[in-house]
Amino acid sequence: MAVTMRNGASLTRRRFLSTAGATAAVSVLGGIAKPSLSRASDRPIITHGIQSGDVSVDSGIVWARADRAARMLVEVATTDGFKTIRGAVYVDALPETDFTAKARIEGLPPGQDIFYRIRFQDHSSPTILGEPQVGRFRTAPSERRSLSFVWSGDTGAWGIDVERGGMRTYATMAQSRPDFFIHSGDHIYADCPIAAELKLPTSTGVACGAGTLRPLASIGRSRYEGPILADWPGRVAQR
Question: pLDDT digit string (tens) for 130-155?
Answer without folding.
Answer: 999 999 998 999 988 888 888 887 77
